[in-house]
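Bit of a strange request maybe. I'm writing a small parser for structure token strings and I need a real example to test against, not something I typed by hand. Could someone generate the tokens for this chain?
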Amino acid sequence: MARWVVVGGTGYIGEALCRSLQRDGHRVLSVSRSARGPANCEHLSLTLSSDSDFSRIFLPGDRVVYAAGLAGRADCERRPEQARWLNSDCPLQLLRAADTAGAESFVYLSSVKALCPPRGIVADESTGMPAEDSYGRSKWLGEQQLLAGTFRCRVNILRPASVYGGGDSAVQAAGRAQRWRAALRTIGRILPLMPASGRRSFVALDDLLRAIRLVSVARCRHQVFIAAEPGYYDLATIVSAVSGARPRPSALLTGLLLGPLRPLRRWRPARKLLELEQSELYSAARLRGAVSWRAQQRFVQFLREAP
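Reply from user aminoacidic:
Good idea to test on real output. This should exercise your parser:
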């Protein structure tokens, strides 16, 4: 049975993947700087630095998943060189080491933020222009470097939409979500109108884990896939699902609230609020066609069923 190597195996997605694979009887090696990895998995404590020895990680036949990286946009803006290393150059060095060792496949977890599609359309994997911010740009460069090389192992890219859900590794995320739900319930009960926001794509953590596993074993190579469930959610839909109320979205209210912030868009807090107007709509048609993947969960159901 092939061994799975999860780089970033103690992060939100990486740890959940390790545990899922281990429960199904797979041999799993978690790689991260943490001293300990997921329970019942092999773990290699390793700092992902330019002088690290990556040659000792891999074995012939490994299925490698790169789930590490610098994910926070604010962190990437503060440390662009670190973002470039962890999201672009480090995956390439690991791929080279894995390929030399005879790995079977290498899947890079990128982000839909790697491209900036035009507003108001449902984007596929080739729609839009490369991102200019430190986070999205580093992901885009990482993709291009991985796809430009010639390797014996199968190399594929997976771009998740916004990921939600519990999983064994999401205790902190669940706590944050619970606090947001409480606030949204209160808002939904007292406000009949909501600012009209853009609509967003989401994907459940469990559905993303299935996508990673399917792409890792599929015969495709040098492909980019988006993982997103069908359906898109705006602020009014989210508040309605959490509170049971039916607030009406108001573009006028959005203009009144965000208008004073437009001249301040270079200020990061203002820019983040202005992004609420933007839609991020993505299609997973290529993934569905390539590996027969279907999103089994829905964000609106997750909101309704959450405590």
